[in-house]
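Subject: design request, 276 residues
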């Protein structure tokens, strides 16, 4: 793990559970102060349980156990007022933002011709518009600092098509386009922008997908979280979770980034990460 993160500030969306929570704790362990942003409630779509205010509270406790401060914000990445308030309060408290981990997102199955317009819009608004909504409030901070790192949590779905996930794949392909474009726009300001591409990770999101599938979705596999991830590729790698969580602190650091990429795979495209 990069050793140069102590005292820096990370703004993490979708931070209450899953990959966002695990990454926030890893950043705290590296010495970063954390601003944790999460919707902290169940949304009409996709309808399964997401993070909660209690999850945010225990995350803050976990960060404090590492000796760093954690601010928590319950808000929706689609709500500019909430995002702006969280960024302003983070700046008031910490005075800087060194890392934005755009992690908030949803997933749900559906054939393209059976999706409603509301379902399509929710997927695109949260997974694609949301990262832009957050970044446009943090990019000016990083420009003033002449430094910063933005990491967009995409997916293998941002690199290939996905059966019954066309709206999800479209959102993740779009996020890759944002990443590449922002990298060009922001490089002159000393800001690095990258995306990472996990495959199916056994998080509470997959519990939600299992719940939806068990209530009338495609059959042929066990309607559990494990069954869902098995259905994605049937492959399991017990070390993949740790690899995903470790990637963000490494990419956020000041080490020779190109050399690090030469030595590590940032795309976990051939394995399923099991929840620890």
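Subject: RE: design request

Done. Sequence follows.
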């Amino acid at each position: 793990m990069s050793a140069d993160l102590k005292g820096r500030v990370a703004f993490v969306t979708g931070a209450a559970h899953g990959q966002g929570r695990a990454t926030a704790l890893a950043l705290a362990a590296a010495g970063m102060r954390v601003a944790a942003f999460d919707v902290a409630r169940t949304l009409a779509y996709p309808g399964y349980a997401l993070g909660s205010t209690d999850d945010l509270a225990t995350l803050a406790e976990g960060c404090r156990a590492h000796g760093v401060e954690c601010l928590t914000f319950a808000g929706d990445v689609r709500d500019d007022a909430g995002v702006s308030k969280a960024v302003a309060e983070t700046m008031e408290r910490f005075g800087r933002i060194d890392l934005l981990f755009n992690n908030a997102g949803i997933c749900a199955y559906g054939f393209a011709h059976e999706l409603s317009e509301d379902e399509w819009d929710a997927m695109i608004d949260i997974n694609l518009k949301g990262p832009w909504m957050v970044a446009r409030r943090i990019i000016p901070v990083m420009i003033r600092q002449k430094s910063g790192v933005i990491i967009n949590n995409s997916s293998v779905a941002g690199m290939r098509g996905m059966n019954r996930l066309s709206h999800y794949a479209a959102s993740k392909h779009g996020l890759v386009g944002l990443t590449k474009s922002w990298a060009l726009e922001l490089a002159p300001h000393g800001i690095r922008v990258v995306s990472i591409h996990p495959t199916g990770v056994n998080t509470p999101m997959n519990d939600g997908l299992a719940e939806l599938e068990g209530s009338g979705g495609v059959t042929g596999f066990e309607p559990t979280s494990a069954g869902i991830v098995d259905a994605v590729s049937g492959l399991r790698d017990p070390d993949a979770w740790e690899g995903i969580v470790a990637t963000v602190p490494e990419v956020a650091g000041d080490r020779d980034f190109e050399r690090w990429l030469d030595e590590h795979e940032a795309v976990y495209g051939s394995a399923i990460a099991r929840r620890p």
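The longest strand covers residues 191-198.
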